[in-house]
Amino acid sequence: MAAAQDQDSNVVLHGVTKRFDEFVAVDDLSLELARGEFFTLLGPSGCGKTTTLRMIAGFERPSEGEIRIEGEDVATLPPHKRPTNTVFQSYALFPHLSVEANVAFGLKRKKVAKDEIAERVATELRRVGLAADANRRPSQLSGGMQQRVALARALVNLPKVLLLDEPLGALDLKLRKGLQVELKRIQREVGITFVYVTHDQEEALTMSDRIAVMNRGRVEQVDVPEEIYARPTTTFVAGFIGVSNLMPATVSGPGKVKLDSGLEVAASTGALAAGEGCAAVVRPEKLRIGLSGETEAAGDGLPRVEGVVESSVYLGTATQIVVNLGGDVRMTVLVPNADEAERQRLPGGGAKVVLSWEPDHMHVVTESVGGDSADPEPALSTNQEG
Ligand code: ATP
After folding, report:
1. Long-range contacts of range 217-223, CB-CB < 8 Å, 24 or more positions apart?
2. Smallest CA separation from ligand 1 atom 26, residue
3. What is the distance in angstroms between the CA of the first residue and the CA of the last residue of the chain?
4. How far is CA 177 from CA 124, 171, 174, 204, 263, in A?
């Protein structure tokens, strides 16, 4: 790839493969990250996201392919010569040094002038909300605070690219949610490219400008969060992001698919040819549910399938209903609990129901090349009711 093409790209990976002996951890990966982008590598454990991050950082060398940062081929550069800094899940702070000394450490080694160090350290500690804690030791801080120190320590070096490997993974859910919002604010403020590794799809959707969903060393889809969620392109992405709501189908002609349940519906079939297997996705909140026979409740005139309610779970803000369409096909429906009387009328276990959806809300996805090994964390907590 010519350097001229990299002008607006901050990080370019081209045909990058990483093998550990015979095992291919990262397989022919190509990505272009824009300057100032919050870019997330998302995928299940073992899909190669950390290995990809470590290759950008210089801790691992690609077996094949090229990595450029700011147009420069960094293949021969060791980590400390690259314009990158990494924040790890384990904060890796010096326990015997104060917060301030931890953050100042790298600048001191580079022999930056004392006044400048003091100013830059103070700026970063203010940015991460730790100005009042400069003289404390890491052991006197909470996990969240220690991670802020690690962040300040990375930012103080003014990297061109900040690499973050599951930085919130060790924190409890509430703290993690707070820090997600704050990390995003800090990234906007400093304008540095962030490459963020996580297996948490909700975290990726919340924070990222773009997401690369990885599966078995390959990128399955790269897009903005809204597209990844609303228009997944493969069965793996559809299953890994949100609740897996797939109806097996076959392309029956241009712009038409036939669900295995028998229904033929119009759909965007892209490059798929007639006869090819695929799956139709409708997100849980886009499905309407009504008792069989109550056509109005289920949306008259809309595409529809029949099934039997397997479970109904109260989730506080919504009710999650799982409907068995026959065989192993299950669809999850999410109904907002806006009205208590309406909630009471929702069909319970064993009820025969009709699911329907607006045609725009159904998308056709193809089988994943890497297989559907997704074992995502449940998107919603469960609280069985009946
Ligand atoms: P996790 O979230 O569990 O770290 P990941 O997506 O970051 O998952 P990687 O750490 O990149 O995955 O690992 C990808 C694959 O490569 C895994 O199967 C892992 O066992 C393998 N792997 C990683 N590093 C090495 C190594 N140094 N030697 C041999 N195999 C490795």
Report:
1. 217/18, 217/24, 217/25, 217/26, 217/27, 217/29, 217/47, 217/48, 217/370, 218/27, 218/28, 218/29, 218/48, 218/369, 218/370, 219/29, 219/30, 219/31, 220/368, 220/369, 220/370, 222/31
2. 20
3. 58
4. 21, 9, 5, 12, 41
Confidence at residue 31, expressed as pLDDT on a 0 to 100 scale = 97
3-state helix, strand, coil in the chain (%, to 5): 30, 35, 40
Question: Which atom of ligand 1 has the smallest separation from the CA of 60?
Answer: 27
Please return the burial class of 293, using the count of CB atoms within 10 Å of its CB with bins 0-12, 13-18 and 19+: exposed
Which domains can be identified in the chain, with CATH numbers? Answer: 3-230 (3.40.50.300), 243-365 (2.40.50.100)
What are the tens digits of pLDDT across the range 342-382?
888 889 999 999 999 998 889 999 877 666 544 443 333 33
Tell me if 94 CB under 6 Å of ligand 1: no
pLDDT score of 301: 79
- Please give the backbone phi and psi of residue 276, each rounded to the nearest 5 degrees, phi first: -75, 145
Residue 9 pLDDT more than 80? no
- Please choose from 21, 50, 55 the residue to mutate so as to test ligand 1's pocket, defined by most ligand atoms within 8 A of CB: 50
